[in-house]
Amino acid sequence: MTTLPPCPQCNSEYTYEDGAQLVCPECGHEWSAEAPAAAAADDGVRIIKDANGNVLQDGDSVTVIKDLKIKGSSLVVKVGTKVRNIRLVDGDHDIDCKIDGIGAMGLKSEFVRKA
Fold first, then answer.
1. Cα separations in angstroms, 101 against 3, 71, 83
2. How many CB atoms lie within 10 A of CB 111?
3. Are the CB atoms for 36 and 8 separated by under 8 Å?
4. Cβ-Cβ contacts under 8 Å for 1 (sequence gap 6 or more)
5. What separation, in Å, do the N-terminal and C-terminal C-alpha atoms of the chain show?
6. For residue range 55-94, what is the model confidence (pLDDT) as tens digits?
């Protein structure tokens, strides 16, 4: 009998195979059976990419690729608006920034490209 590695998320010993994936029944975490060590090494490191697939970092400048309506306001962030000195955060809106004329706001990385 083959022993399966514990869950890298919660260290549960009750993992099982589901095709090419390993699954933890306690926390629901799924990871690749081929590289469990690589998955454990990447824990906590989140890579955020723009609409073109370029990796974004804190302090980068980005350009908005789509008109974005601001919820609760009549303002619109226009296509081509350049945003400088972004900060990457966890959450649905993964970019914190300050846009001239609008103020501080959160953007989704899928609506920007690296400048």
1. 59, 16, 12
2. 18
3. yes
4. none
5. 53
6. 999 999 999 999 999 999 999 999 999 999 999 998 889 9
- C-alpha 61/C-alpha 39 separation (Å) is 30
* Residues 7, 39: Cα–Cα separation, whole Å: 10
DSSP the chain: -PPPPPPTTT--S--EEETTEEE-TTT--EEESS-HHHHHHTTT----B-TTSPBP-TT--EEE-S-EEPTTSS-EE-TT-EE-S-EE-SSSS-EEEEETTTEEEEE-GGGEEE-
Whats the size of the chain, residue-wise?
115
Asked whether the beta carbons of 21 and 52 are under 8 A apart, the reply is no
